[in-house]
Amino acid sequence: MTKPQLQEFRKRLLEERNKFAGELKTIARKSSKNPRDSSGDLSAYTVHMADMSADTYEREMDVNIASSEQKVLYQIDEALKRLEEDAYGTCQQCNKPVSLSRLKAVPYTELCIQCQRTKEHKK
Ligand SMILES: [Zn+2]
Prior knowledge:
The protein is an all-alpha fold. Helix content is about 70%, strand content about 0%.
């Protein structure tokens, strides 16, 4: 990979990082505004489950989104680390180069398409 290409990926990774970090902050702010379900009172929670309000549903969604975004954020950090170490674009499984088109689609990917398929197949 050439220097300008690496620069371009670094830029994109930093942009993605900002975006995800910002979304996580928004979700955290939204959740803390409405702390009534986070008391840890399980009996109250069970009652809520029986008649799950749209509000609770939305918060459940937010928790799901937040945890998957946290995972992406971690992957972005790892990709940036690999950029620093000149290991960017190398599959973490088989050590072969990840195709450029795949990196362009998902700049923080750590697996080549073959390894990704194998991994998804195992699930
Ligand atoms: Zn691979």
